[in-house]
Amino acid sequence: MLVVAHISDLHFNGTAGGRDRVTSVLDYINRRAAGIDALVVTGDIADDGRQSQYEEAAATLITPLPMLVLPGNHDVRGEFGHALLRGSPDRGPLNHSQMIAGALFLMCDSSIPGQNEGRLDDETLTWMDAQIAGAGPHVPVFVAFHHPPVTLQMPFMDTIRQTGEERLIALVDKHPNIVAFLCGHAHTGAVTAFAGRPLCLAPGVSSTLNLPFEGSDVINETQPPGLAFHVYAEGRIISHFRSVPAA
Ligand SMILES: [Fe+2]
Ligand SMILES: [Fe+2]
Q1: Which domains does the chain have, with CATH numbers?
Q2: For 37-93, how does the pLDDT look when each residue is reduced to its tens digit (9 = 90+)?
Q3: Cα(10) to centroid of ligand 1, in Å?
Q4: Fewest CB atoms within 10 A around its CB: which of 14, 68, 80, 226?
Q5: 146 Cα: distance to centroid of ligand 1 (angstroms)
Q6: How far is the CA of 234 from the centre of ligand 2 (A)?
Q7: What residues contact 227, with CB distance under 8 A and at least 6 apart?
């Protein structure tokens, strides 16, 4: 059995209230670290990409778990890489991978510098293909990125989703050992399907966005921060969601 803690959309902005929402979910995870194999953070770490926000993130995101992070549309590659990926190159997508507990985690950069919508560069898709092939056909693969490559019936978010997804579908068709996709961006805990595999969205830590019938405001102010636990066992993923009110 493999257990992945998954959080997303932290949006560090220098406020104590924002930081408290992150520490509440992180404390919940850290207190249970003995039963968890990895922590995946699917983007929008900073609210507007300032260096001070990454310094705040680096000082707050303390965990005994292997932590895998990737950027979202609110992040800036140079600052993100310097603070959170030990000085990754400033140019090009910030892709990286790690084997954890016998599974391959592909952390893919779906951001487009300066834009809110997402897309995987051809370079990223080539890299993914090589990584999966290199691991071999029997290694379970988790593919993480920020932008969901499907609509979610959330009118605004659907306009800034990941596009160009037909190239990703073609890649997935080649690799039956891709277990699931992990993403964020929509600030809603949700599960759907993409290319025949589960697509799991972590709740937004910083905020939750309303569905059209929940309210006319963009942000649902009543919702506490949350997280997902993805359990991989018997060849499939089971996603559990938790809300953790900030102290
Ligand atoms: Fe976000
Ligand atoms: Fe986002």
Answers
A1: 2-243 (3.60.21.10)
A2: 999 999 999 999 999 999 999 999 999 999 999 999 999 999 999 999 987 666 799
A3: 7
A4: 14
A5: 9
A6: 32
A7: 5, 6, 7, 25, 28, 29, 202, 203, 205, 241, 242, 244
